[in-house]
Specification:
Elements: H1 4-18, H2 33-44, H3 51-61, H4 69-83
């Protein structure tokens, strides 16, 4: 799972580039890291009001998504990190 500083930089990158259109997010295997990044973005942009809501949104949009426990934990940690 990405470190909090990596998530923050990635969220900033997405914000900057989303102003110009669609941002495609993926990781090497497409397995959990991209989910933690999108979960962090949903929280940062107030598109989800809790880590649980962010994870549920990911699962609703992409039912086949695999979110490993450490990626879920990163979403919860990011929520605490951004509030402090």
């Amino acid at each position: 799972a990405p470190a909090m500083e990596q998530l923050e930089k990635t969220v900033d990158f997405i914000r900057t580039h989303a102003e110009n259109g669609v941002v495609y997010i993926h990781c090497k295997i497409g397995y959990s890291r991209s989910a933690s990044v999108v979960g962090a973005y949903l929280l940062a942009e107030n598109l989800a009001d809790s880590p649980e809501a962010a994870i549920q949104h990911l699962r609703t949009i992409r039912p086949s998504i695999v979110i490993r426990p450490e990626a879920e934990q990163a979403i919860f940690e990011y929520d605490s990190y951004r509030k402090n």
